[in-house]
Amino acid sequence: MDMWALSKSNRSSTVVPPFINKWKEAESSIRGTARSPTIEPVDNEKAELKADDADEEVKFSSENQKKENTPSLSRIMFGLFWDKFLLAVLFKLINDCIQFVQPQLLRLLIGYVEDKNNPDDKWRGYVYGIAMFAVALVQSIALQQYFHVVFTLGMNVRTAVIGMVYSKALLLNNNSRKESTAGEMVNLMSVDAQRLMDLLTYMNTLWSGPLQIIIALYFLYNTMDVSILAGVGVMILLIPTNLFVSRIARKLQVKQMGAKDSRLRMMNEILNGIKVLKLYAWETSFMRMVSKLRKKELHHLRNSSYLNASFAFTFTCAPFMVSLATFAIYVLTGNELTASKAFVAISLFNILRFPLVMLPNVIISLIQAKVSS
Which residues span the membrane (predicted)? Predict the structure, then answer.
């Protein structure tokens, strides 16, 4: 064997059965607490007035009933993997807190180098250097442990979802098979399960990102005084852009998934009836139909890629724009930009860079995972 065996806790035989049992328990509890609808007498005149809206009301009520009768995937995942969730939160919190120690040690080290009045205090320089190394070491260990936990958690969730979809696919009756084709089930096990896994990798950024931004702005305020308000203003101006792009991304994601499901459904029908298709020489006609569906899917993919590229470019430039605005206002207000303040501010801006860049991406991943689930 060229690979080592998986640990027992990460095997599908260990992960999938509890997940399916949790899902069945949630379904049974929903069915047990569901109330039968009450029928109220309606006058004929009122019924005639509401006849035009009957179809929409039935559709709306059926969609709401379907959502209410579906168990929450997030609750089941947290109930099954809550220990790994909390462990990942702990490692992430340790990493986020320790990374702000480095700029403070850098401030002390630069201050020690600039201070020429005490040339005999060499031990302070060694202490600061060793402390920076120790802090970086602890931060690296915490960060790597965090990624190990979240990647393992993502693989477990992906395995559980694939196993549940596969087990349900084996129990489908003929009527259900007409509604859910093999292509749709393959799409669930490949694309949607992968998106859930990708989301779990950086999901903690939803709370860690704002925390890092607040702490970084606090230290920046102590370093650059009120000039940091210029950088805060730039970030506030970027928030509406984030919300606008997120809405467009969700719409594009829904359209893309719909087009992909249609294409997979068509391909499944073609493969099932390939003998009849060959017999009547319908290859060209069906090829045009599949190409049309594929072009529609590629159109949505292209628009989504353009949107993601512009989104990534904007928020990659965000830390630079924030630092530029802050330094410019700080110098223009008559303050002296020393090496200590500049390097510490740049270090804090580098910390600020990750949440500013990753938070929008995590929001988009959350939207995609919500559509997939």
Answer: 125-143, 149-171, 199-220, 226-245, 306-330, 342-367
